[in-house]
Write a structure and sequence with these properties.
- Chain B: This is Ni,Fe-hydrogenase III large subunit.
- Chain B: GO terms for molecular function: NAD binding; nickel cation binding; oxidoreductase activity, acting on NAD(P)H; quinone binding.
- Chain B: Pfam families: Complex1_49kDa (PF00346), NiFeSe_Hases (PF00374).
- Chain B: It comes from Consotaella salsifontis.
- Chain B: InterPro entries: ComplexI_49kDa-like (IPR052197), NADH_Q_OxRdtase_suD (IPR001135), Ni-dep_hyd_lsu (IPR001501), NiFe-Hase_large (IPR029014).
- Chain A has one domain.
- Chain A contains 12 helices and no strands.
- In chain A, helix 2 crosses helix 10, helix 8 packs antiparallel against helix 10 and helix 10 packs across helix 11.
- In chain B, a hairpin with a 2-residue loop joins strand 7 and strand 8.
- Chain B has a 4-stranded antiparallel beta sheet with strand order 1-4-3-2, with no helix packed on it. Chain B has a 3-stranded antiparallel beta sheet with strand order 7-8-9.
- The longest helix of chain B has 29 residues.
- In chain B, helix 4 packs antiparallel against helix 5 and helix 4 packs antiparallel against helix 14.
- Chain B is globular, with a radius of gyration of 21 Å.
- By secondary structure, chain B is of the alpha+beta class.
- Chain B has a single domain, classed as Cytochrome-c3 Hydrogenase, chain B (Orthogonal Bundle).
- The chains are: A mainly alpha, B alpha+beta.
- At the A-B interface, helix 6, helix 9 and helix 12 of A face strand 2, helix 4, helix 5 and helix 7 of B.
Chain lengths: 317, 373
Amino acid sequence: MSSQIAILIAVLLFPGGLFALALGLGLKGADRRIAARLQGRVGPPLVQPFLDLVKLAFKRTMVPTTAHDLVFLGAPLIGVVSMLVAAALVPISGVYSPAPALGNLLVLIYLLLVPAVVLMLAGSSSSSPYGAIGFSREMALMMAYEAPLVLIVAAVAVRTGMAQGHWVTFSLTEIVEYQRTHGLFLLDPVMWPAVAAFGFFYPANLGIVPFDIPEAETEVLEGPLLEYSGPALGLFKIMSALKAVVVIGLDIALFMPLPLDGVPAFLGWVVEMVVLMVAGVTVLRISMGRMRIDQAFVFFLRWPLLLAAASLAVVVV
Amino acid sequence: MSSAVTTPGKSVGKSNYTIPVGPLHVALEEPMYFRIDVSGETVNAVEINAGHVHRGIEYLATKRSLNQNIVLTERICSLCSNSHPEAFAMAAETIAGLTVPERGQYLRVIAGEVKRLASNLFNVAILTHLVGYESMFMHIMQVRETAQDIKEGVFGNRMDLGAMCIGGVRYDLDEETIGILTAGLDKIEPEVAEIVKTFKTNGSILRRTKEIGVLAKEDAIACGVVGPVARGSGVDYDVRREAPYHVYDRMPLEVRTFDDGDVWSRAMIRLHEAQNAIAIIRSCLKELPGGAVNLGTKLDIPPGHAVAKAEAPRGELIYYLKTNDTEQPERLKWRVPTFMNWDALGLMLRNAKVADIAIIVNSIDPCISCTER
């Protein structure tokens, strides 16, 4: 019974749920603010993403008459729930490790796919042609970045597993524990290609320039999100904020869990979050333009796939 | 002019769906409506519809006196707002056989080139916005802000300069305003050079503009495109050189052409012309003669008709003016560069990707408010 309550707390309060949402909105706010400063603008206040949510909560959700209601309104809910569970699956070194009953790395990888699938559902159910284009772009981009992700995760899982005498481990807790005692994978030259490949994966997964192709505002008017308004759009924003925490949290767990305990470990983790967000998202998105979907597809099949495969090959051999 | 321009593209075949671009679309600054048949991400056919912002200005012009029409024509278009009254005044002067004082002619060139500098930077900024390069957009708009400051400091306005009048100009340069102008040019010149360098080297920009929206030279001639669109496709035509007006024959005018005919070439032509505008203004300031700037206010324009043309930032602008015994013109008609250029969009958009539609449309620098007036 108590373990079920613990899981519920993990999903709804900490480290998933409210905490992850607050952190995700904070990261988004910081991203917008820092991007603005780097571009010589004043920028919105840090709490702007939160204020946007409040505004959306008080608006109506309009459902297009040609849309499929159930899918149209169900899609954002599925997205948020999947990300709530995913956030509870990400360990924080020295602070939190997910209960084995909740799932392991494989479950997390599947959950990470859900937002993309949800956006595809949203795009196709809205019956808008822009949604349809967004759907096909989301699909192509997902296929492009999913292969490198699987190889990256495999490299880490095999590396940890082999060091512990069995072939492979999919327990994030074990991966974190191993790094706490044997040194971070970030400092291991064998894993550097995988770290770099993950650096390409997460802007694509988060939909950031140069990979914000499915939602490109000036091309397809936010694509799948075009027909959304009010609380339903707010749910997508919540999903996106949670996803930022999950993806960056996964990056930290896979390569750079700090060997600390208690409050310093928690603060260190938050600092890592912010640094990765600013370095991997903010700086990237303000220093580049958008790629076309064909360019992004070729790019992913070339560089990140090659890098991740290199790490995996070295680890296995 | 007809209210709808239809451009048949490739036969539709088994097109998957139709997407509407416009009349209200974030990537279009003005209302224009494209019906685009696409298969997946590729454009099959484009239909261009116009007529959303008809304002009845041609009719209005015949209800205003010639001098009032200077004010009216300035408000046809915001970015070419100097070229419209300029061409109108030139037509009126041709009818009356007036010669603008030399100082007035130099000042007309300065006003026109300041507008060209700001207008071209604006279009290039929008291009970077459309490829999703927000920082570059912010930067170019910041550079353009210097041109806006020049306009505000010298002419008193940031968009409509109010510089032209029949028989000359309504402003004069003194020590102070020449100082503002020179300081502004000194500031903006290296910045524009830096933007040119970025456009030549930056991967994000090259990736999305090279070999996109190609208009071959033969097609460019067949469509009769004008301005940077023509010069980007290798058509060596500039009104300022072919039919020099004011004192352009004495200016260090450089007419550049590119043979590629893609979006990048058109952007580069605009940037080069922005740089050239700076050189022309400097040369005007150096040679600026003394004397009157206009012919006074009581001008007699006899009955008659005339055509005048000028090179607006977007290309050749033609004015036809017919006067009679009254103070109002009997007929005033103009042909704007966008009217010639938007027909070529059908060719540029053929087999384009959906992602490039907005970039290609922006590359002709469409001005709908002056085309549909």
